[in-house]
Amino acid sequence: MPHNMTTESRLRALLIANRAVVEQLDLPTVLRRIVEAAVELVGAQYGALGVIAPSGGLDQFIHVGMTPDEVNTIGHLPEGKGLLGALIDSPHPIRLDTIGNDPRSSGFPGGHPPMDSFLGVPVRVRDEVYGNLYLSNQANGQFTDEDEQLVTALAATAGIAIENARLFAETTRRQAWSAASAEITSALLSGERSDSISLIVNRVLGLSGADLVCVLLPTDKPGTLVVETASGLGESDVQGAKVSAADSISGTVLEGKQPRLLADSDVTLPGSVRLGPVMAVPLISAGTAEGVLFLARAQGAQLFTTADLEMAADFAGQASVAMQLGRARGDRQKLALLEDRGRIARDLHDHVIQEIFGSGLELQNIAGRVQSEALAERIGQTVANLDASISQIRTVIFALSAPVEKTRNTIRHSIIDIVNDLSPSLTTTPYVSFSGPVDLLVTGDLAADVTAVMRESLTNTAKHAAAEHSSVVLTATDGHITLEVTDDGHGTPITIHRSGLANIEKRATLRGGTSEFHSSETGTTVRWSVPYSLTPVAENGPTP
C-alpha cells in the first residue's frame, strides 16, 4: 500500500480490514485473515501471527509472504525466541528500522529471506495476550507511527474476532461431545453394543482431535494398570500394555479422581513414538474411579485447552453412568435368564423325569409277564435306555441350575466347563453323565486328578480320533470313583500319546486304582477307577 495515502483512505482501509477479519467464524481462517489484512493495511512484504502457548513460546505460527520452497528451506518455524520472544515477555508494540541492529535479535536461520524493518503488536483477547502480530519489510522502507496505530487498532478488532471464533468453535465442539454422549448412552442402554469401552474410545478419538485415545483399567495386581482398549497412534503396540500406577499420569488421576492436563507429557510409546500434549480423565462410577480415559497428541502438536479438558471430563462422567446403567441392564437380563433356566430345570425334574421313570416301571412290569424271552430282553434294554436318559436329563438340570459361587468349583461344574472348552475341537458336544454323590466324594486332590485325566482323554479324542460322538461318564459306586471317556473314532496307536497315558496310569497307581486303555477301528475307551476311601500314596502327583 502506498505510504502517501491520505488519513481518510487509510481509515477506510482499516474498516475494510476489520470487516474482512470479523466475517469468519472458523478460527484458523480468522487467524490467517488477520495476518493478510495487516500485511495489506501497512504495505508489508511479510506477516505472521504467533499464538502464545500456555507454557510460553509459540503454540502456532501463521505466516504470509514466504513461498513453500522458502518454508521448506528454513525447516522448523519460530519457537518464540529472540525478538519474537521479547514481544512475548513484554507485550507492547515494537517498531524497528533494522532488525539486525537490535540487541534482542537472535538472527535468522539459513535460507531465511532477508528482513529489515519490523513492527510487532500484541493481540489481546479480553485481558489475555493471545498472540502477537509480526510484520516486516515495509514497502517504503520503514514502518511509521501511523502504521503502528493502524495495526494496533486492527489487533483490537482481531482480538474480538478471535474470541468470537473461539466461542463458536467451543460451542460446536460441546454440541458434538453432547451428541456423542447421547449416542453412546442410547447404544449401551439399548443392548445393541456390548463393547462399551471400544465404542467410547473410538468416538472420543474423532471428537477430541487426539492422535491416541486409551482406556486404562486396574488389574488384579495392586499398583498396575492395563491398557484395555487403544485407538490411534501406535495402538497395536499400546493395546494390552501394563503400566505402573505409581509412575504414570493415569495412576495419579485414578488415585486423585481428578482430571489432568499436561502441555508436554514427554512419554515414549513402544516403537519410539513420542507423545506431547496429554489429557487424562477418571472414569468414576458410584464414587469409585474404575478407570482412566487417556488422550494424547503427538509431540509438537497443538495443545489441549482447559475447555477440551472440561468437555472430555463431562463426557467421561456421562459415559461412566451409561456404562453403569448398561451393566445393571445386563445383570437384570442375566437374572431373568437364570430364572428362566431354573424354571426349565424344575419342569424337567418335576415332570419329565417322573414320567420317564413311571414309563420305565410300567415296562419292567410288562417284561415280567411276557412269555417271549427275546421280547423281554428288548423291553429290558429299553428300560436301561430310559435310565440313561434320566441320568442325562439330570446332568442337563444341573447345568441349567443357577450356579452359586460357593459350589461353583464342584466336580460337575469342572467337567462341564472342560467339555465346553473342548467342544469347538470336536464334531459334536460330548455326552456327559454323572451317577452317585460325585460332588461330595470327588473333591480336593482327587478332583484335580479326575479333571486332569478327563481333559487328557478328551483332548486325545479331539486330536487323533476323528470321532463323530464321544461321552464322559463319572460314577461313584461300590467304593470306587470311575471315569470313563469313550468315542466312536477310528482309534489311535498307543505310541501317539504314550506320555499322556503314562500320566493317567500314574495318577491311578498313586491312589491304588487302575487305568485301562482300549482302542480299535471302531472307537477308543479310557477307563480310570480309584477307591475313594483311600488316601493318595504320594502327596505330589504328576502335573496336568
Write a structural description.
By secondary structure, the chain is of the alpha+beta class. It folds into four domains: 7-170, Beta-Lactamase, CATH 3.30.450.40; 191-304, GAF domain (Beta-Lactamase), CATH 3.30.450; 324-402; 407-544, Histidine kinase-like ATPase, C-terminal domain (Heat Shock Protein 90). Helices cover 48% and strands 23% of the residues. It has helices spanning 7-22, 27-42, 68-74, 82-89, 145-190, 196-208, 235-238, 249-256, 306-367, 373-400, 411-422, 438-441, 444-465, 498-510, and strands at residues 44-52, 58-64, 94-96, 118-125, 128-138, 212-218, 224-232, 242-244, 260-262, 267-269, 273-285, 288-298, 431-435, 470-477, 480-487, 514-520, 523-531. Strands 6, 7, 8, 9, 10, 11 and 12 form a seven-stranded antiparallel sheet that branches. A five-stranded antiparallel sheet has the order 2-1-5-4-3, sandwiched between helices. A hairpin with a 2-residue loop joins β11 (273-285) and β12. α11 packs parallel to α13 and α13 packs antiparallel against α14 (498-510). The radius of gyration is 39 Å and the shape is elongated. It starts with 6 loop residues before the first helix and ends in a 13-residue tail after the last strand. Residues 534-544 have low confidence and may be disordered.
Keywords, please?
48% helix; alpha+beta; disordered C terminus; five-stranded antiparallel β-sheet; 544 residues; Beta-Lactamase; seven-stranded antiparallel β-sheet; 14 helices; 4 domains; single chain; 17 strands
| Relevant CATH superfamily of the largest domain | GAF domain
Count of distinct structural domains: 4
Q: Which spans of ≥5 residues are poorly predicted at pLDDT below 50?
A: 534-544
Q: Profile the largest sheet.
A: 7 strands, antiparallel
Helix content: 40-55%
Annotated CATH topology of the largest domain = Beta-Lactamase
Shape, per Cα inertia axes? elongated
The top level CATH class name of the largest domain: Alpha Beta
Distance between the termini: 89 Å
In what range is the share of β-strand residues? 15-25%
- Count the strands? 17
Determine Rg (CA atoms, Å).
39 Å
How would you state the average pLDDT, rounded? 77
Helix segment count? Answer: 14
Structural class: alpha+beta
CATH architecture of the largest domain: 2-Layer Sandwich
